[in-house]
Amino acid sequence: MRRSGMGVASAVGGSDAGSSGISAETAGMLCEILAESPFFSGLDSQALAQISYLFRIAEFQRNDWIVEHGADQECFFVLLEGQCAYRDAQGPRIEVGGQFCEEALVFAAKALDGITVVSDTCKVAALDRLAYQEVIVSGAAATDRTLRDFLIRLYHFDAKMLCRFGQPDRRTDHPSSSIPGV
Q1: Cα distance between residue 132 and residue 147, in whole Å
Q2: More confident position, 82 or 15
């Protein structure tokens, strides 16, 4: 496998129409995908639209690493075109609409799996942690209910990640027990 010719930070500069790098068509597609995502479900259409325009577009070639194993995770990705795989070309596939590196939206961590391109080309939409947190935590989408929902989504995502990597979920600190009104 070869490394991508550019790092994720420089790769997500945007290549579609509009100053945000996202065309209206791509933003609409992202809204539909995000509405089904654990991190974004429950947000209203206005918040989803606002978030969709924060994504940047990046294109990669066959055998490029979108995320390298052990690298700092900087972005959450949605696959728009092509096909990727976890670990290497023989790993589990990620199809169009697939999402990966969700944990990068919440905390700095090293990538547990590498993600590589297995089709001739691939296009992803990438959202970095700072942009996500600005909108969710301090932006227009922030309400007490949104913050509670966010913490609950984070808890369930964490449980999903533990199971994905063969670790049982032994936590007893469910967020709803410590958040008023949940």
Answers
A1: 13
A2: 82
